[in-house]
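Annotated sample (chain length 191).
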Amino acid sequence: GPKGDKIAFRHSNGMVFIRDTKTFSDLGNFDVHDHAEGGYRWDWKPTGETITVGGRGDLQLWDISSFKMTKRIPMAVGYLSWSKDGKYLAANAGKGSVSILDGAQYTKTATLKGHESGVRSMDWSPDGRHLAIGYNKGKVNLWNTTTWNSVHSFEIGWTPAVLSNEYSNAQAAQIKWSPKGDKLFWGKKIW
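Output written by the structure step:
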């Protein structure tokens, strides 16, 4: 969890288990069976006891203190990522499109369209001023989180042949900011 006192993991049957990180004792679980087949993504909301789960048909918010679903929003989600302050949730809602939802009301505040290919990964800069989105075919866009305008875009130079080997898996598609926010890591390269 956001405080480092809980860890969440899922079983292939759609059950999500929460454990205490000091004792590793079981704190409870919940069933996201609607997303068990095929992929679903999840992320802790950094400002509380909520896990957000997104999949083919909806976005679910789960309260970890009660292990109950508190909200269900109809929208297909490929990838999702909370801003570090919990003010915004970025949810990939279609080919190359990312919806920015308000973190309190879960209403759409912006739609980012950066590339015709699918989104592979997203990460917020440590200061919250930028959202980096990595797309299929090696494109990366940096978005200003005040204006929601793209401020920089670059290609990482991968060819379709490279994308078809084992490096096209999520590991290579992972995009992360360095803790200071001065570097951006994509796959096995640093910019």
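Annotation: The CA atoms of residues 5 and 177 lie 23 Å apart.
Annotation: The radius of gyration is 17 Å.
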